[in-house]
């Protein structure tokens, strides 16, 4: 009897695997190049940095020497380091303000660019141009020359006004966001493109049906457009989190670089800092995916 049950379970499991493969094989094949690239070029350095984070790494005689110290690097980061935790907290505060602004800006602009008007193609290209030009070293040079600053902040003494009304603790992250306001424009190109692609998945017949029922454009946006865009908002949230937390002017990554070549800290301490940073980003990504999943399930997107 028990053998029969085992056979039934085995057949059911193999049937589920066949069903998943038949439904998701295209997705798996699209992921294959990334999986190969990660396995060959990234997996070993990532594993080695995790190994380093539990060791005190010294370079002596041209060779690395490893001393296992467990979680001591992480303890020193959280209890003895006076710079890294502060930079980490301030950067997360700024990013948690900038990410919703980028998503909102991208959604609004993509709605406008999805309308039919003369010159729509060139205008879409203009919004995507910063993604091509303002990357890496180019972006750092532009910010170094003051291209990312907004002149009206100093002209109207916004710093003093904000500090007076919201206090210094909230004023610092707000001023940090205003100081990087140009990033919202420069880092919205891909998100706008994804949102525009998302609008094409909504059948025109749905809009026609709701107009026949007497719905206004405002109502059709809340009832049709926005719910249909939830998976794309989640996708853009994930992309924006990854993009901003690997920003070339990232002060947290700068701290990791400094400690890597400091004789008092070294590779082990810097690796622990990097893994702490990575864990927090992973947690943020998990929250974004969970919210997207719950929102999609709520409207019947998954069965």
TrEMBL record:
Location of this chain's protein in the cell: Cell membrane
Pfam families attached to this UniProt entry: BPD_transp_1
Coarse class of the protein's main subcellular location: membrane
Domain ABC transmembrane type-1: 88-288
Signal peptide annotation: none
One cellular component (GO) term of this entry: plasma membrane
Superkingdom of this protein's organism: Bacteria
Segments traversing the membrane: 28-51, 88-113, 125-143, 177-199, 220-242, 274-293
UniProt membrane topology term: Multi-pass membrane protein
BP term (GO), one: transmembrane transport
Keywords from the UniProt entry: Cell membrane, Membrane, Transmembrane, Transmembrane helix, Transport
Family (UniProt): Belongs to the binding-protein-dependent transport system permease family.
PANTHER family, alphabetized: BINDING-PROTEIN-DEPENDENT TRANSPORT SYSTEMS INNER MEMBRANE COMPONENT, BLL4140 PROTEIN
Protein name, per record: ABC transporter permease
Taxonomic lineage of the native organism: Bacteria, Bacillati, Bacillota, Bacilli, Bacillales
């Amino acid at each position: 009897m028990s053998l029969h049950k085992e056979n039934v379970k085995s057949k059911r499991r193999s049937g589920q695997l066949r069903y998943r493969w038949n439904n998701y094989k295209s997705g798996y094949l699209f992921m294959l190049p990334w999986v190969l690239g990660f396995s060959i070029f990234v997996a070993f350095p990532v594993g080695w940095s995790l190994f380093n984070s539990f060791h005190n790494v010294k370079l002596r005689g041209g060779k690395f020497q490893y001393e296992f110290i467990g979680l001591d690097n992480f303890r020193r980061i959280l209890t003895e380091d006076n710079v890294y935790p502060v930079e980490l907290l301030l950067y997360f505060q700024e990013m948690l303000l900038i990410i919703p602004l980028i998503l909102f800006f991208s959604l609004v602009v993509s709605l406008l660019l999805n309308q039919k008007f003369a010159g729509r193609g060139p205008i879409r290209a203009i919004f995507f141009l910063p993604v091509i030009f303002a990357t890496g070293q180019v972006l750092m040079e532009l910010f170094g020359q003051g291209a990312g600053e907004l002149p009206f902040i100093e002209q109207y003494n916004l710093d003093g006004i904000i500090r007076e009304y919201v206090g210094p603790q909230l004023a610092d992250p707000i001023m940090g966001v205003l100081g990087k306001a140009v990033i919202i424009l420069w880092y919205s190109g891909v998100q706008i493109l994804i949102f525009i692609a998302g609008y094409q998945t909504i059948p025109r017949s749905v809009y026609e049906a709701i107009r026949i029922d007497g719905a206004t454009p405002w109502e059709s946006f809340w009832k049709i457009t926005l719910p249909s865009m939830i998976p794309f908002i989640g996708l853009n949230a994930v992309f924006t989190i990854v993009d901003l937390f690997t920003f070339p002017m990232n002060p947290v990554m700068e701290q990791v670089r400094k400690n890597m070549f400091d004789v008092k800290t070294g590779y082990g301490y810097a690796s622990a800092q990097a893994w702490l940073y990575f864990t927090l980003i992973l947690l943020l990504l998990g929250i974004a995916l969970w919210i997207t999943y719950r929102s999609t399930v709520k409207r019947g997107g998954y069965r």
